[in-house]
Design brief:
The protein is mainly β and about 80 residues long. Helices cover about 10% and strands about 35% of the residues. It has a single domain, classed as Formyl transferase, C-terminal domain (Methionyl-tRNA Fmet Formyltransferase, Chain A, domain 2, Roll). The chain has a 5-stranded antiparallel sheet.
């Protein structure tokens, strides 16, 4: 999906609704808040690849840019280079 589609889906499903989700290591992870990061320099990186992880966000390559996950329910953070 594009960054805009992921962002809009996450906003639409945010609290008080069920939250957007993804599957990571056979577990359902709820995503509550994201933002789009515009970047055209990473067109050759595969979508859903984790690009950066910090205590406050996780950057993941989307179809056309980067989606920054700001609020989530990961118990163990993914590693850079993994796929979501």
């Amino acid at each position: 999906m594009s960054s805009g589609t992921i962002y809009n889906l996450t906003r639409a499903l945010a609290k008080p609704y069920v939250g957007a989700h993804l599957i990571y290591k056979q577990r359902k992870i709820i995503i509550w808040k994201t933002e789009e990061v515009i970047c055209t320099e990473m067109d050759n990186i595969e979508p859903v690849k984790v690009l950066e992880v910090s205590s406050s966000f996780i950057d993941v390559k989307s179809y056309n840019g980067i989606i920054r996950i700001l609020e989530h329910e990961f118990e163990t953070l993914p590693q850079i280079g993994e796929y979501l």
